[in-house]
Amino acid sequence: MRVDVNCDSGESFGAWRLGQDEALLAHMTSASVACGFHAGDPSVMRRTVRLARHHGVAVGAHPGLPDLVGFGRRAMEITPEEAYDLVVYQVGALAAVAHTEAVPLRHVKPHGALYNMAARQPALADAIARAVRDVDARLTLFGLAGSCLTAAGRAHGLHTVDEVFPERGYAADGALLPRSHPEATIHDPTVAADRAVRMVRDGCVRSADGTEVALVAGTLCIHGDAPNAVAIAQAIRAALDANGITVAAPESAP
After folding, report:
1. With contact defined as beta carbons under 8 Å apart, do 160 and 154 qualify?
2. Closest CA to 26 of 222, 210, 157
């Protein structure tokens, strides 16, 4: 058994600080770095890429909707053409920063509302997958397990990785619960760790209504903005190790 553990990172902006990137990246195998639309700025991007390099963590782009105030978690009406352009723009920006730091860009993972919209909207998913392919067809696309986004990535010949969320609540259809739902977020590190092991070992997660949801776990996500993200990361890594599950970044696309 093998799985990647990734975190959303680089989500500070100017004088505003969010997350504990330095402590969190020590427990990760991949980092999805904000590209300036929902969070992050050029200096934060560079600093985060350097931190990832220091910890031997694979670097990916984390493009989001242009909504700093809402942290990219508010849905916006955008066309597929707009989605294509904003993904190309942000991935290109992080790729340039990573290049100057001699760090290869390994994956792309949409953020927040853009991610959830693409999970269920085929046209939007197709636009994002095309954007990733056109920037660099060797990039891996991360998407919600079983979603439109991973299907679109495969259709465009991309290496795709199914992502699961041990610290987020699930609906019976495999979608993530909206953050307004009382069970949207798992705060207990022990519970999150137990869910992570079940996701990888058993290929399932229990939804908020008690339904067992089947899924494929290629990468586990830990949200870097959670106050106890480091504690959750430590608990998950310890549980994976205790169950003989290898933790490693996804292999690069052929």
Report:
1. yes
2. 222
Q: Which amino acid is at 179?
A: R
Hey, what are 30's tokens?
């991949």
Joined together, the tokens standing for residue 87 give 């993904």
In whole angstroms, what is the distance from residue 155 CA to residue 158 CA?
A: 7
Residue among 172, 218, 226 at smallest CA distance from 11: 226
Of 20, 56, 54, 6, whose CA–CA distance to 237 is shortest?
Answer: 6
Which domains are assigned to the chain? 2-247 (3.20.20.370)
Query: Token pair of 39, please?
Result: 């969070």
pTM value? 0.95
Per-residue pLDDT tens over the stretch 4-37: 999 999 999 999 999 899 999 999 999 999 999 9
- Distance in angstroms (rounded) separating the CA atoms of residues 222 and 8: 7
**Residue with token string 């290496």:** 159
Identify the three-state secondary structure at position 201.
Answer: helix
Backbone angles phi, psi at 168, to 5 degrees: -125, 150
Q: Which residues of the chain have pLDDT under 50?
A: none
The pLDDT of residue 225 is: 85
Question: What are the strands, taking DSSP E only, across 14-145?
Answer: 30-34, 58-62, 105-108, 140-144
Residues 6+ apart with CB under 8 A from 72: 37, 38, 39, 64, 65, 111, 112, 113, 114
- Asked whether 105 and 114 are in contact (CB, 8 A), the reply is no
How many Å apart are CA 55 and CA 51, to the nearest integer?
6
**Bridge partners (DSSP) listed for residue 62:** 34
Residue 175 to residue 146: CA distance in whole angstroms: 9
> Is the separation of the CB atoms in 207 and 181 below 8 Å?
no
